Amino acid sequence: MENETLAKQEIKDSLRLSNTILKLLGFTLDKPATVSDAVVQKLLFIATIVIITIHVLSELACLYVTFITTPQVDQVVPLLHIVGYGTLGILKFTVLCSKRKVFAQLLSDLATIWPVPPLEKEAQGLKNRNLRTLRLMHSWYFALNESGTLFYIITPIGLYIYYHIRGQAYAIKTVWRSWYPFNIYQQEWIHVLIYIFEIFSGQSCVWAMIGSDLLFTGMVNHIILLLKILQQRLRNLGRTKSSSEEDGKKLVECIKLHQRLIKYCKDLENAFSLVNLINICLSSVNICCVLFVIVLIEPRLGLSNKLFFGASLIQIGLICWYGEDLIQENANIAEAAYNSNWYNLNLSSRRRLAFLIQRAQKPIAFTAMGFTNISLVTYSAILTRSYSYFTLLYTMYSEG
């Protein structure tokens, strides 16, 4: 019981950034400690749903109005990547909320197989490096997305200050291109209120995106860590002075761990499969449209759009990277088993090891609702589609 408690704490610490971000949106996998915490969480959750929904609907309405009134490529395309990002954010958050109990159970199941001290020196070193790399990666991913959002927020104010210093008139508009059923410029306080609303709504969409991605990559990272530790244990089979019975017991433990990891991957796949499908479908459009805007349309928002472009590439690339890493580490299980001193094992252990090798040769992969595996091959296909869409838009823009 103490080991499981320690495991839960270590897992929680490794996902601290993700949990903090999602908690700001009113989403948590832990039960509130007090009634007041539960009330605050509920209010934050309701506010997040309302704010993000209004934000995305206003962007979709703006896209619709623009398409009806001025259906030119240079007018419609600059709206698509922002609408796509907002839509992706709200869909991810919706999936997280609808499967809250599933994710809580997945973290609880992970604690039962988590490597807790005392560990072998090699395994402990591997664990420390893995968790340190995860924290660093999560921090950089958060910083990149937040910097892009910050530049979108301050750009209208920055432009106002720039033109004011030069003695030129400039009217501050809004952070995002949204449509409202009233004139937001009729009174100054309404304009200020809308500007503040768009800051919080845009930030909420970004947090929903970041929180979901960090939760997924963190859980996949832990599976990969366990697979690497399993590889070390398999390589050490038959290398010590242990008896055949002891080696047989170690092998049985390795097989059980591998089977539990396979089951855990399937459960995690079922939980995130829809999110992965949404990611793949919208990422190509987002990357294509923001690239089109950077190259041809809006040089004033160059830095903001470039940060958005980088964040979009890294966002889907990170997920595909972890998906590829999972495939490779599972395949390495078979290699690790073969590289053990299997010839020092008894006949029954050799048979078990052969079955383990055969099972490890069957790929474990996350999919987008079964349509495609999440891997670097998928990432390459997304980039290829994005470039194809870009050339099509460029041709339409040049001829128009």
UniProtKB/TrEMBL annotation:
GO CC annotation: plasma membrane
Leader sequence segment: none
Superkingdom, natural source: Eukaryota
Presence of the UniProt keyword Translocase in the record: no
Compartment(s): Cell membrane; Membrane
Coiled-coil zones: none
Membrane topology (UniProt): Multi-pass membrane protein
Annotated InterPro entries: 7tm6_olfct_rcpt
Disulfide bond found in the keyword field: no
GO molecular function, one term: odorant binding
Spans through the membrane: 43-67, 79-97, 139-163, 206-227, 271-297, 364-382
Keywords recorded for this protein, A-Z: Membrane, Olfaction, Receptor, Sensory transduction, Transducer, Transmembrane, Transmembrane helix
GO biological process terms held by the UniProt record: signal transduction
Entry similarity comment: Belongs to the insect chemoreceptor superfamily. Heteromeric odorant receptor channel (TC 1.A.69) family.
Name used for this protein in its record: Odorant receptor
Natural source organism: Pieris macdunnoughi
